[in-house]
Amino acid sequence: EVIEPDDGVTAIGSGGPYALAAARALVKHSDLPAAEIVRQALEIAADICVYTNSHITVEEL
Predict the structure, then answer these.
(1) Which of 35, 42, 48, 52 is most buried, judged by most C-beta within 10 A?
(2) pLDDT tens digits, the chain, 61 residues: what are they?
(3) What are the residues whose beta carbons fall under 8 Å from the beta carbon of 50, sequence distance 6 or more?
(4) Where are the alpha helices (DSSP H) in the chain?
(5) Nearest partner of 56 among 35, 39, 34, judged by Cα
(6) Domain that holds residue 19
(7) Side-chain half-sphere of 42: how many Cα atoms within 13 Å?
(8) Which pLDDT value is given to residue 22?
(9) How many domains does the chain fold into?
């Protein structure tokens, strides 16, 4: 089975819900490229969640 989110955005991990909320808002209200949305969402999650750090590596295919 394949799980596919309705809005094309998903997140995992302890800061996942925070990153997911931020990414959904950025997708809906900006024209940023996908990699920048990921970076910004993870930075927001790191600011909120004590278990998420701000050492971010984004790999693109």
Answers:
(1) 42
(2) 888 999 999 999 999 999 999 999 999 999 999 999 999 999 999 999 999 999 999 999 9
(3) none
(4) 16-29, 34-48
(5) 39
(6) 1-61
(7) 16
(8) 97
(9) 1
Of 56, 46, 39, the closest CA to residue 16 belongs to: 46
Q: Would you state the pLDDT for residue 2? A: 87
The total number of residues written for the chain in this structure:
61
Structure tokens at 16: 């996942």
Cβ(17)–Cβ(11) below 8 Å: yes
Q: How many helices (H) and strands (E) does the chain have?
A: 2, 0
Beta-carbon-side half-sphere exposure of residue 20 (alpha carbons within 13 Å):
13
Write down the pLDDT at residue 19.
Answer: 96
